[in-house]
Amino acid sequence: MATVLLDGIKKSFGSVDVIHGVSLDIAQGEFVALVGPSGCGKSTLLRMIAGLEDPTAGAISIGGTVVNDLLPKDRDIAMVFQSYALYPHMTVRENMSFALELEKRPKPDIDKAVNEASSILGLNDFLDRRPKALSGGQRQRVAMGRAIVRNPEVFLFDEPLSNLDAKLRTVMRKEVKRLHQRLKTTSIYVTHDQTEAMTMADRIVVMNAGRIEQAGTPLQLYNRPENLFVAGFIGAPQMNMLQGRVTTTEGQTVLAHADVTLGLPDDVALDEGQEVVLGIRPEHLSLDPQGVLRAVVEVVEPMGIETHVTCMLGHTELRLIAAPDTDAAPGQHIRLAYDTSAVHIFDQATGNRVASMAAI
Length: 360
What we know:
alpha+beta, Rossmann fold, CATH 2.40.50.140, single chain, six-stranded mixed sheet
């Protein structure tokens, strides 16, 4: 296990800047997920840690050693790619042992490493098969096994589950997390799927346009997003956003939205006339005949354990999570209540979270 330190990492391709001074400290044994939309720079950052790309500026340290000038094979890392990249003419055993054979390890050591990895990943019955005789999930296990046998200081995962179907992705998420809990190797995992990041990582780093928007535990990002980008990216269904102007009505601070007036929490520092965005998670909206929000149901999606309801508040779309037996139907007029203590408030101009009174 080793720490990974990124200090002011920049990357340019010609005149195009894609990474803008990223600094990040990853602790020994930590599982960190890099998430963000396509093109945000997360895979480029991972490739620089692996040594497959050179940073334009900044330093990368692994285990306290700056590795900018080291070849990938000298960095003591192992990488699992989106494509399985298995040798089709080799058996599972041969695929897993190939890197160790290139290093001219003693055969007993190679056999021991392969057998231990295959036991961890449940591949003992497939060691003599070739990749074409394996399912997608089994091939991905072989790719992970090939990384495990090297016993690296750091595991790097580049969207390893994106080629799998939805059910198998769920299974493999659990397998990767179980693997990390067993090996406790420092791991950096790139994904565009925030559900993967939320369920697997100790800490999530949200990237956007080559910069880190916020880093924290899954619950920190979910419960206290620092800006509108993080608030909209983390969470499914997505957070509801209502734009409006802060005003005072009958001595109470409220949000004047185009279609409704909404009460605001008392512990947030707001200025009269300030343009803000009110964020409400779908689970903090509820069907209530006395609710202040009057909406029209558009789509109802039964999920078994819950029902997702999409409705329109004037021209603003709202999503809520309702009980599985809800009788909401498209075209129905409904009223909604919301939990004032659970709302998030962001400044429209900057996109940043508005500080609470206690933080001032």
